[in-house]
Amino acid sequence: MGTGEERYLHRSVRLPPGHGRARASFGFRHEQGTGDGRRAIWKIIWGCPAPPKVRVFAWRVVTNSLATWANKASRHLELTGFCPLCGVEREDGFHALCRCPLARELWRVMALDWNIPKVEAIVNTGPELIFSLLDPLDETARLVVLMTMWRVWHVRNEITHDKAPPTAEASRRFLHGYINSLMCIKQHPDGNLEKGKMVVLPSPPRAPESTAPKVRAHWVPPQPGWVKLNTDGSYIAATGAAGGGMILRDDRGEIIYSACRELRTCDNALEAELEACREGLELALHRSNLPILVELDSAEAVSMITAREMDRSSHRALIKEIRRLAESDAREISFTLCSRLQNMISHELAAYGRSTPRTAVWLTAGMDFVINLALAEKPP
Ligand SMILES: [Zn+2]
């Protein structure tokens, strides 16, 4: 939010005749109430594992110091307080973060992954809305709610700055990786994991009564002298958007490379899986001389690649290419099935490549969420 917000606050704004031009400023208003209730609010906000910029954003909501159109109009910095996005009503913090169609859509897609309140059920309790919202929630839900509101405000600012806003789905993916990495840091501040402890995932409290056995699977490093490649594909049938994610690590869990890719010509999820595997393997062959264990979470893809007979499906060219790459090298290369939890980083990378859309390779590194997740998956 930072830069957009600042640019927003410091640009020249229209004033009624006679007022000339001025710079808008919405500083914090610490003086607004200092009772016990206030202290409880700050405790909830500052105790949340959200990044500082998100907590500052929450502070601004509580102190009613966001540069909403209603706030600007009350200072004669805008002629009207109506929402610049939908125009339906005054844009106060509640409208911008919970009522505007843009906000509602992001709340809706976030609720697909996390147990957060339904946006329709949120009541406008004024600037202290955040407190009444967060108070009854557990820590994970508090984090998700704050991150969602922060993201809504960011997207809203992109639009008011005439930038192309990210789709709700892109924001969902972005927040998913971000929140997971934040929770890893929170749980494992030293990155010092007990063996067998898995990376934090959003507990789906949506179905707490589920009797399904708890999946404890976690990424396992390859045996010494080997490297492990995890790849995954991401495909959205409705739009045809696809992406691939890959990460190569050694037996100490160190990243050799991580990569994401937008897949432009992809017809289905299996093709995205295979395409990510092909590209991941090609990169891995260049980045290490050690034998490679390739892990995918698609049973179909693994069985197609490892089948003895020639593939006759529409994917035969891709299968053939993967096999050719694997046989082009004297070292041992094998393919195996893993669980989705074991494939989480490449999964997130694939979604990132698809939704941004972006293609990139990072050597011995990766985006923040990749580094944090990899740190959490490192062997002790
Ligand atoms: Zn609106």
Distance linking N and C termini: 36 Å
Number of DSSP E strands: 8
Low-confidence stretches: 1-35, 191-216
Q: How many structural domains does the protein architecture include? A: 2
Secondary-structure element sequence?
A: HEEHHHHHHHHEEEHEHHEHEH
- How many helix segments? 14
Alpha carbon gyration radius:
24 Å
Strand order of the largest sheet: 7-6-3-4-5-8
How is the main sheet built? 6 strands, mixed
Helix content: 40-55%
How much of the residues is beta strand, in percent?
5-15%
Q: What structural category characterises the helix and strand content?
A: alpha/beta
Overall pLDDT metric = 80
Shape: elongated
Q: What ligands does this structure carry?
A: zinc ion
InterPro entries: RNase_H-like_dom_plant, RNase_H-like_EbsB-rel, RNaseH-like_sf, RNaseH_domain, RNaseH_sf, RVT-Znf
Domain RNase H type-1: 230-351
Domain Reverse transcriptase zinc-binding: 39-107
GO molecular function, one term: RNA-DNA hybrid ribonuclease activity
Per-chain topology:
Blueprint: H1 2-10, E1 12-13, E2 22-23, H2 36-46, H3 52-62, H4 69-74, H5 93-99, H6 101-113, H7 129-134, H8 139-160, H9 168-187, E3 227-236, E4 241-249, E5 255-263, H10 269-287, E6 292-296, H11 299-306, H12 316-327, E7 333-337, H13 344-355, E8 360-363, H14 368-377
Parallel strand pairs: 3-6, 6-7
Antiparallel strand pairs: 1-2, 3-4, 4-5, 5-8
Zinc ion binds next to loops.
Domain RNase H type-1: 230-351
Pfam families: RVT_3, zf-RVT
InterPro entries: RNase_H-like_dom_plant, RNase_H-like_EbsB-rel, RNaseH-like_sf, RNaseH_domain, RNaseH_sf, RVT-Znf
